[in-house]
Amino acid sequence: MLRESKLRIPEWRQGAVRRRKLVESLLQSTAPFVVVSAPSGAGKTIGVRQWVEAEERPASWLHLDRGDNDPVTLLHYLARALAGVATVDPAVESWLGLPMPPLQKAIVPALAEAMTRAPPLVLVLDDVHLVRDPRCWAALWPILSSPPAGSTVVLCGRTDPPLPLPRLRAEERVVEYRYAELAFDRDEVAELLVIRGLPATEGLVDHLLATAEGWAAGLYLVATALKRQGTTGWPPDPAAARRDIADYLAGEVLTEQPPEYVEFLTHTSIVDRLSPALCNALTGRIDGLDMLRRVEKENLFVVRLDGDMGWYRYHHLFAELLEGELRRRDPGAVPELHRRAAGWYEERDQVRQAVRHWLAAGELERAGDLVAARWMSRYDMGRLLAARLWLDEFGAGQELAYPPLTIASAWIRGLTGEPVAAGRLLARLDSADLEAPSPDGMACLRSSVALLAAVLGTGGAVGMRRQADLAVALESGNARTGLWLALATHTAGLAAALCGDAGPAAESLHAAARHDSSVRSSIEEASLGHLSLMAADEGLWDDAESYALEAAAKSEVYDLEDYLPSVPARMARDRLSARAGDADAAADLEELFDGLDPRFCQWLGPQIALILAEVALEGGDVPRAHHWLVEAGEGLDRWSAPSLTRRAGELERRLRERAVVEPVSVAEQRVLELLATYLTVPEIATRLALSPNTVASHVRSLHRKLGATSRSATVERAIELGLLAGRPAAPAD
Question: Most buried residue, 417, 569, 570, 730, by CB count within 10 Å?
């Protein structure tokens, strides 16, 4: 569920210093991009908020957080933010709700078009440093890169956003505000003192500037502490600023609060964001909302996040102080507070926060069980990248310390582009007890390991089949869910096909394709795609078309051609179309081949290459058929599959027969033998007592007969076909 609070322009904070110079500078800027990059507490958000208030253009604001490190979530919020100032295609909302949203194909172009067609606007992305996933920025930049004329995109954060800033600077399309530009000057420090009811003496202004060095948060904290103390003195040593601020907060703020306030503040300091319900869970109270409002009224450095909805956070420095106080006053309470927070987040399916607190409580197994139990739900929603972020919470060695977590991590990594890392994790499980039930619903941990090893293609097609058959045997008695049996059955059928055992392959694939309807259609679609490809291999084109049409019907459930389980159906459709003379089908297969990750589903590359070679040969393009046969061979050198190897051998035989259908004449053979040397055409003509034109004619004929387009390629093909012995002597083309 989207949080509307993330889309609200921050409320105006009473007692804030007017950043007149900063606002005037921003108002005068005509650059389409503004980067505000400075440390925590530098006044980034307040300064930009004041500028937005002075702007005549419509403005939209998006508060980013760590949960936005998922392209789907991020674009969902961006679409909502843009909808406030531009016209966004309504289909975007529907696409974002799909199990695997078509980000690059549909959503990013639609949002980019909405941005381009918008009237002059201001779009603020706040806390951009919290979004670190390169895939998020790869989706964002095409949308943000061309704002409409007269518009400004503002990116605020503690670090520079990963945008092409050097190019933007060279093109004079960006202005940047850093700590130096955000630091308070003397006039602003004096104004702060006046607002706080303190004398703006020259000495006090100097002390504050020396201590906080223009740092907005520090200045506010110091001024508030001075107000409470009723003194104008302050240590002028800038290096001691953080310690002194902490001392004043502890001595001048906390000591003045009633014990129940202090207990509430310290016990709620362990979480990043506060809600009444979460505060009640942590403290055992029932008046969390009232307490938060009283804390806010007392100006105890609490920041309201969403108007009247009840979400707050403490100022970062204050939260740091409170947590330190908690550990000093009641260290034994810290683990229990983290357990309460973890349980509260777990009940609300906020897994990353729950994992963070389970680990802080020292509960590695609880954190591991949660990841193992919930990762599949994210896969079902097309949000597996969000689950990948959960793993970042674990420290070095923790992923290997608990087998259910190790296995879940291997699944997540394997399915999000890290199959090598997944394989390493599985390899470390040899001595583990794997007979316990798996939290993800599989019959046992051993079954989960076997199925993932099969999905990763461990040990080539033969090893893949052995692991898949083991998973089928273990899952056959699993009463908890039929999903894993369907996937294991599908994988066993695919492995049998790759091993060349067509009967068992068809039986397993049919079973997976006709499995209980509660199983996701992606498994059924993939099984039907493979059945179509097998029928085509046997020349049963009517059956191949029937399976392909049925797979296409399943694909419409998802409307996602780039979804991995849809690849076999796409291959089957292209193969049928290419046979019918559709030139675009081969191009689509080539695009699919180029987009494959060679580390994952390693059979797909050789399989597609062989189809392309067959299509080329059927179209009479021998050189192209040979090219794709070589590509297939390189893939099969890395990952062995008996059926594909046999198929490649048959294709090579057909190519050889095709190449020598028209015999090489005696005269052409004499020329061919000299083509393998360094002799030029005129020199060959002299050696054979022929005219250069005659030699050139023989060379052209040899190119045609051997299906080559160059001298070196002709020699290579002649060696492959046994027309020449040995390797060529590197002839010049």
Answer: 569
Task: Assign 732 a pLDDT band (cuts: 50, 70, 90).
Answer: very low
- Give residues with Cβ within 8 angstroms of 28, minimum separation 6: none
Q: Do strands 174-177 and 122-126 pair parallel, antiparallel, or not at all (unpaired)? A: unpaired
Instruction: Assign residue 557 the CATH number of its domain.
Output: 1.25.40.10
Asked if the model's pLDDT at residue 423 lies above 60, the reply is yes
Alpha-carbon distance of 646 to 651, in angstroms, equals 9
**Do residues 577 and 611 make contact, with C-beta atoms less than 8 angstroms apart?**
no
Weakest-pLDDT range from 119-128, 181-190, 195-204, 566-575: 195-204
Distance of alpha carbon 250 from alpha carbon 450, whole angstroms: 56
Distance (Å, whole) CA 718 – CA 125: 63
Query: Roughly what angle, to the nearest 10 degrees, separates helices 642-659 and 604-618?
Result: 20
Q: How many domains does the chain have?
A: 4
Under 8 Å between Cβ of 412 and 391: yes
CATH number at residue 691: 1.10.10.10
List all residues 6 or more positions away from 103 whose beta carbon is below 8 Å from its beta carbon. 71, 72, 75, 139
CA-nearest of 7, 173, 147 to 74 is 7
Residue 456 structure tokens:
């990763």
As a whole number of angstroms, the distance between CA 212 and CA 222 comes to 8
State the DSSP string of 101-119: --IIIIIHHHHHHHHHHSP
CB-count exposure of residue 518 (10 Å: 0-12, 13-18, 19+): exposed
Q: Quick one: average pLDDT of 521-550?
A: 91
Instruction: Check residue 226 and give its pLDDT.
Output: 72
**Residue 42 CB contacts under 8 Å (≥ 6 apart), including other chains:** 179, 182, 183, 215, 216, 217
Q: Which residue has the higher pLDDT, 502 or 563?
A: 502
For 435-450, b/e burial (b = at least 16 CB within 10 A) is: eeebbbbbbbbbbbbb
Distance between CA atoms of 78 and 98, rounded to whole angstroms?
17
CB 625 within 8 A of CB 655: yes
The verdict on 174 and 190 lying in the same domain is: no
What's the gap between Cα 516 and its chain centre?
31
The rounded percent of the chain whose pLDDT value lies above 90 is 50
Tokens of 732: 């010049």
DSSP state of 145: S
Per-residue pLDDT tens digits for 572-597: 999 999 888 888 999 999 988 988 88
Retrieve residue 566's tokens.
């849809």
What is the 3-class SS of 499-547, one letter each residue? Answer: CCCHHHHHHHHHHHHCCCCCCCHHHHHHHHHHHHHHHHHCCCHHHHHHH
> Do 561 and 701 have their domain in common?
no
Average pLDDT over residues 489-506: 96
Domain assignment present for 321: no
Residue 257 sits at φ, ψ, to 5 deg, of -90, 150
Mean pLDDT of 441-456: 93
Region 324-338: mean pLDDT is: 92
H helix or E strand, kind and range, residue 170: helix 165-170
